[in-house]
Amino acid sequence: MRALPVLQLFFLATLAATTHGSFELDIADQIIHLLRPKTRSGDSHVDDNVSCLSWRLGVETHNIIDWTTVPAACEGYAGDYLLGHQYRKDSEVVAHEAYLYAESLNLTDDGNNLWIFDIDETSLSNLPYFADHGFGVEVLNTTSYGAWMLEGIAPALPESLKLYKKLLALGIKVAFLTGRGESIRNVTETNLMNAGYDSWEKLILKDSSYSGDTAVMYKSSERKKLEGSGYKIIGNIGDQWSDLLGTNVGNRTFKLPNPMYYAS
Ligand SMILES: *[C@@H]1O[C@H](CO)[C@@H](O)[C@H](O)[C@H]1NC(C)=O
Ligand SMILES: *[C@@H]1O[C@H](CO)[C@@H](O)[C@H](O)[C@H]1NC(C)=O
Ligand SMILES: *[C@@H]1O[C@H](CO)[C@@H](O)[C@H](O)[C@H]1NC(C)=O
Ligand SMILES: *[C@@H]1O[C@H](CO)[C@@H](O)[C@H](O)[C@H]1NC(C)=O
Ligand SMILES: *[C@@H]1O[C@H](CO)[C@@H](O)[C@H](O)[C@H]1NC(C)=O
Ligand SMILES: [Mg+2]
After folding, report:
1. Which segments of the protein form a coiled coil according to its record (predicted)?
2. Which atom of ligand 1 lies nearest, measured to the CA of 74?
């Protein structure tokens, strides 16, 4: 029942100034330009380190669990992966499969078909923050990460935004379900809208009454409430296994990559 740092961040109350001038966001073209990453850039090293590739595969398949930081020897590898083409290609495959599935259902729009989107590293990308602060222990710095969240300028993960729009066009409703706390509802709404997510059926943030519960317990409980009120969760997409495990997970789940952090 380890409450992980990334989830605790959202209860943070202080706002500190931080610089984020290292990236340029182009919503229209769905491109994230990272101009000043603190790691090596480009894809050239991504395939080099077989040990780190095995580590990433272990993380994505949920064989390696309860880890807290990227192994020091793999920080450069993780940075290259995330800032290079592979992360985007992997995300695109996930989003594309999700769309093919949704489309194949030939749903009749009865107004109850719902798709769950997680927020961080799913709908929104905190990559500009990680590019500035590195992919290692700094991930755990609640002060600087919390300040970044409160700026409300995280760009969309472009592949997820495309999926979101296509699902809406199929008549599927979207609910955002996040470990972010209620205390940052406003900035989260603003951030979602600025990133291109302009409407939603529900935006479920974590009430402080859930403190102590794991993400799996919290998210299962919220999904159960949704199904109890008549929604049919036909799909569910997230970057953490805790978004996709537990109960009421939906007819199909889709796992986006995230070798940066783990939340149980
Ligand atoms: C590859 O990763 C291993 C740890 O898994 C590390 O010991 C080694 O230094 C790394 N090699 C390179 C070239 O980054
Ligand atoms: C959806 O419609 C297509 C085209 O009519 C059809 O080929 C497919 O079998 C249908 N899928 C389901 C799940 O009914
Ligand atoms: C965390 O970030 C804050 C704000 O950038 C900084 O002042 C502090 O030294 C950092 N703490 C650690 C342990 O790195
Ligand atoms: C959130 O926004 C609403 C109006 O949209 C405002 O009334 C409320 O005070 C805001 N809450 C916080 C915590 O900023
Ligand atoms: C989703 O799963 C439920 C329960 O197994 C089933 O009744 C329903 O037909 C499924 N819906 C779709 C769209 O596959
Ligand atoms: Mg997430």
Report:
1. none
2. 2
Does any domain span residue 31?
no
CA distance 172 to 113: 5
- The DSSP letter of residue 38 is S
Q: Domain residues for 102?
A: 90-255
Residue 122 counted as domain residue: yes
From residue 140, give the alpha-carbon distance in Å to each of 137, 177, 231, 245.
6, 22, 36, 24
Answer whether 58 contacts ligand 1 (Cβ < 6 A): no
Q: Do strands 252-255 and 173-181 pair parallel, antiparallel, or not at all (unpaired)?
A: unpaired
Amino acid at 59: V
- Are 103 and 167 in contact by the 8 Å Cβ rule? The answer is no
The per-residue pLDDT of the chain, averaged, comes to 85
Give the pTM.
0.84
> Whole-angstrom Cα distance, residue 207 to residue 36?
36
Does 71 map to a domain?
Answer: no
For 91, the token pair is 């995300």
Nearest CA to ligand 5 atom 8: 251
Angle at alpha carbon of residue 123, lines to 174 and 26, rounded to 5°? 120
- Give the mutation target among 141, 150, 151 for probing the ligand 3 site: most ligand atoms within 8 A of CB: 141
Which CATH number do you get for residue 167? 3.40.50.1000
The strand pair at 23-26 and 31-34 is best described as antiparallel
pLDDT in tens, 25-40: 333 334 444 434 444 5
Structural domains in the chain (count): 1
